[in-house]
Every structure is written in C-alpha cells, then in structure tokens.
Design goal:
The chain has about 290 residues and is α/β, with parallel strands linked by helices. β4, α3 and β5 form a beta-alpha-beta unit. It is globular and about 55 Å long. The protein has a 5-stranded mixed β-sheet with strand order 5-4-6-3-7, with helices on both faces. Strands 1-8-2 form a 3-stranded antiparallel β-sheet, with helices on both faces. Helices cover about 40% and strands about 15% of the residues. It has 2 domains: about 170 residues, D-Maltodextrin-Binding Protein, domain 2 (3-Layer(aba) Sandwich), CATH 3.40.190.10; about 90 residues, D-Maltodextrin-Binding Protein, domain 2 (3-Layer(aba) Sandwich).
Length: about 290
C-alpha cells in the first residue's frame, strides 16, 4: 500500500528547517515558494500586512505535547508551575513556543515568566531533557513518545487527540497547513491545485492506513533507529491528521484566540480570518474524487 503523494505528477525540491519560524522567514524572503507549517503563521503575517494564505489543512489538532522532566513532576500541579522554568521549544517564535505561552497565559502567567530554549524537533530535544539542560519541553513525536517510553518525562498537556485539544482550547484548533503567498496563488494556480490535490489524496489515504502502512512509506532514517517507536508515535498522532483539509471558522477563531491571549501587538491589529484560508483548491480536489 503506497501513499498517493508518491505518485503525484509534479516535481518539487524540499528544504527542511529547524523550526516553523525559519520556514516562514524563508517564504517571506523568497527562498521557498510553499511551506508546510503552522496555521497561526498566516494570522501573524496578515497582522503585519503580508497576504499569506493556507490552502489546505493537514493537521486538525496541533499534535504538540508539553511535558516536564520526571524529577520536576512531583512539584507540578498546573501550568502556573512552569514559572521560572527553562522550557525547550523547537525554536523561539515557533508554534511550540506559542503553544506553551498560551498554556501559561491561561494560568495567569506572562510569556516572560519562563525562558525558552530552541532544541529542534529531533534527537537534540531528547538530549536536552536527558542531560537536564531544560526543565520542561514543548515538542512533537516521535521525541515525546521516546521520552515517555524511557520514563524521562511527565506529560502535562497533550494536543495529539480531540479530547486533549478540547481540554486545552475548548474546541478545534487547526495546526499544520500548506501556506503560500497570495501572489503565488495568482501566478501559479495550477501548481497550487496540483499540490493540494496530492495532499488531499494523501489525507484520505492516511485516514484508512494503519500505522504500520504509514511507517512503510517513509525513509528509514525517520525511525531514528527504532521502527517500533516510530510506529507507536504514528499511532498516537493519527487522530490529528485532517480528514477534510478544510479549516472551520471555529478553528480559525480558536487559533486567533490562542495568539491574542499573550500577543499585545496582535491585539491592536485588524485581522480578517476569512483571508487566512483559501478553500477553493480543497473544494476542487474533493469534487474530483
């Protein structure tokens, strides 16, 4: 069983960045044309007068987990206990950073009440916990599953499932999307449609595929030397994959509310959330099924 993305008839060249903030900078700077990144970046950029739009939702839940180091677990009762901690995030200004700041704001803390250390989303994040370089971590799988299996962390907020996401945000909260500049949409609509078609087909496949089938489609280096771990991480995150590719109005508002909770600059901006998502391409992809 093969992912339909592998059979899509277009050529592209990918670049991997340490965190979402760097991916966004690359798009703004013109070194990449399209980004798979956090939906919230489209909101932030609109507030800055940059017309960047999501064209398909890839993740309906953030998939981000906040955990404290096991030796800190006994003293942790609520997000208020993150005060004064050194918190590892994928990169400063990334979605993992925003996520933990939102949790802190709900507990009455300010973003400055903790320090944030960029640890990436790979083995370096695991090492930072194991070495004691950080007190807590906001990160993704398979790193979270690895640390949990090793007994190094206690999970305190988990947005990999619908239940966990609702507990944090009170509802849906769109996560990963494919986003582009508006002028790219206008110049290359056929390219955007081809990309959305491929991602939409892949989402439909992911909905039906088993974790083992998903694992069989990725390069072996994704396993980080432990295929069973990778499969366990896929199983934990499978509910987070978008089923339709469409971002709901409630989801858009939830994402905006998260940012508004701690970003005073954003509070002063005029934001039209309808302009952060162009659903025409997903609608066409769905109609072609």
């Amino acid at each position: 069983m093969h992912s339909p993305f592998l059979h899509s008839r277009f050529r592209s060249r990918g670049r991997h960045f340490r965190g979402g903030a760097q991916s966004l900078q690359a798009l703004v700077g013109g070194s990449v044309d399209v980004v798979t990144g956090a939906y919230e970046h489209t909101i932030r950029m609109q507030a800055k007068g940059q017309d960047i739009k999501a064209v398909i939702e890839l993740g309906r839940f953030p998939g981000i987990v906040v955990a404290v180091r096991k030796d800190k677990a006994a003293g942790y009762k609520s997000a208020a206990d993150l005060k004064g901690m050194k918190i590892g995030v994928s990169a400063p200004g990334s979605s993992t950073n925003f996520f933990v700041m939102y949790l802190m704001s709900k507990a009455g803390l300010k973003p400055t009440d903790a320090s944030y250390i960029g640890v990436g989303i790979g083995p370096s994040a695991v090492a930072a916990i194991k070495k004691g370089d950080i007190d807590a971590l906001a990160n993704l799988d398979p790193m979270i599953t690895k640390l949990e299996q090793d007994g190094d962390i206690k999970i305190v907020a988990d947005s990999r499932s619908e239940e966990g996401t609702r507990a944090i945000f009170g509802g849906a909260n769109p996560a990963a999307v494919l986003y582009v500049k508006q002028d790219f949409i206008e110049k290359y609509p056929a390219t955007v449609q081809a990309l959305v078609n491929a991602f939409h087909k892949t989402l439909q496949w992911l909905d039906k595929a088993t974790p083992e089938e998903i694992a069989a489609t990725v390069p072996e280096d994704y396993y980080l030397g432990d295929k069973a771990l990778y499969i366990a991480a896929v199983r934990a995150n499978k509910p987070a994959y978008s089923r339709t590719g469409i971002i709901s109005a409630a989801g858009m508002q939830s994402a905006a509310d998260m940012l508004l909770a701690f970003d005073d600059e954003l509070k002063a901006a005029k934001i039209d959330l309808a302009k952060t998502f162009d659903g025409r391409f997903v609608a066409k992809a769905a109609a072609a099924r």
